[in-house]
Amino acid sequence: MELTPVQHDALIELLNIGFGRAAASLSELTGHRVLLEVPHVSIHPIGELNKALEVVLSDEVASVHQIFSGPVAGDALLILDHHAAGMLKELLTNEPALPRDVRQHPARAGLVLGPASRSRHAAAGHAVAARQP
Amino acid sequence: MTGAKVLLVDDSGLARRSTRRVLEEAGYAVVEAEDGLSALEQFSVEKPDVVLLDLVMKGMYGFDVLQKLRELDPAVRVIVISADIQTSSREKVLSAGAAAFINKPVAPGQVVKTVAEVLAEDSRWS
């Protein structure tokens, strides 16, 4: 599936707005400022998602899977790498999260959107965020 | 206030096209820049009356562009339009001298209204 430049631009802008809202909520919950970058967006066949995600995520991950139904239906999968998950846990609970020092690494998060169970393609977006007091 | 020149800075072509359309329909002249460096160049060449500036862009971040614009012209009128709707971001850009902050997604009427309000503070356009 190929996106036109306009469709690609629209998808980036849509994710940009979504990430902005997520950042505002995280900032409110944690008391830290979240630094945003322009999201990277790409389209992949479902069967090739693992390979595509390996570029931004490797090692252990934590994920949240949300299934949507209704006029806009599909699956959303939020995937955090080890460092991001630990950092988020630390910020939300004020407790040490994991044995590794998560503060020395940038946090990476991936978001997969699409009617995964009914289509052969899904959009993958990812952004890098860092906390700032 | 029609005839005023607006510099529109956003790395999203979609956002630039949609905002440009509503501004031109309202009678403004619009010039565009897709990144921070182009914005600084366009600002010097075109001498716009107001700048609409995105924050989250590739290359130079919008906040840095705002600071550079203020160095070039301390009286520059900058309206920040951003998906970064954190309270701290809004406070940061307003304290750095932005005239207004608009959250994305933007209602067409809101852009025209805010541009008019900011220009109304300038005696040349009031």
| Count of individual helical segments of chain A | 3
Described by strand count, sense and barrel closure, the largest sheet of chain B is: 5 strands, parallel
Radius of gyration of chain B: 13 Å
Number of domains of chain B: 1
Taken in chain order, the helices and strands of chain B follow as EHEHEHEHEH
CATH topology of chain B: Rossmann fold
User: Oligomeric status of the shown chains?
Assistant: heterodimer
Strands of chain A, total number = 6
Report on the biggest sheet of chain A.
Answer: 6 strands, antiparallel
Task: Give structural attributes.
heterodimer, A: 133 residues, alpha+beta, Chemotaxis protein chec, 6-stranded antiparallel sheet, 3 helices, globular, disordered C terminus, B: 126 residues, alpha/beta, Rossmann fold, 5-stranded parallel sheet, 5 helices, 5 strands
Topology:
The complex is a heterodimer of chains A (133) and B (126).
Chain A: H1 5-30, E1 33-35, E2 40-45, H2 49-54, E3 61-68, E4 74-81, H3 82-93, E5 107-114, E6 121-132
Chain B: E1 5-9, H1 13-25, E2 29-33, H2 36-46, E3 50-53, H3 62-72, E4 78-82, H4 87-95, E5 100-103, H5 108-120
Parallel strand pairs in B: 1-2, 1-3, 3-4, 4-5
Structure report:
The complex is a heterodimer of chains A (133) and B (126). The C terminus of chain A is likely disordered. In chain A, strand 3 and strand 4 form a beta hairpin. Chain A has a single domain, classed as 3-Layer(aba) Sandwich (Chemotaxis protein chec). Chain A has 133 residues and is of the alpha+beta class. The relative contact order of chain A is 0.22. The longest helix of chain A has 26 residues. In chain A, strands 1, 2, 3, 4, 5 and 6 form a 6-stranded antiparallel sheet that branches. Chain A starts with a helix and ends with a strand. The radius of gyration of chain A is 15 Å and the shape is globular. A 5-stranded parallel sheet of chain B has the order 2-1-3-4-5, sandwiched between helices. Chain B is an alpha/beta fold and 126 residues long. Chain B has 5 helices and 5 strands; from the N terminus they run βαβαβαβαβα. Helices cover 45% and strands 18% of the residues of chain B. Chain B has a single domain, classed as Rossmann fold (3-Layer(aba) Sandwich), CATH 3.40.50. The relative contact order of chain B is 0.18.
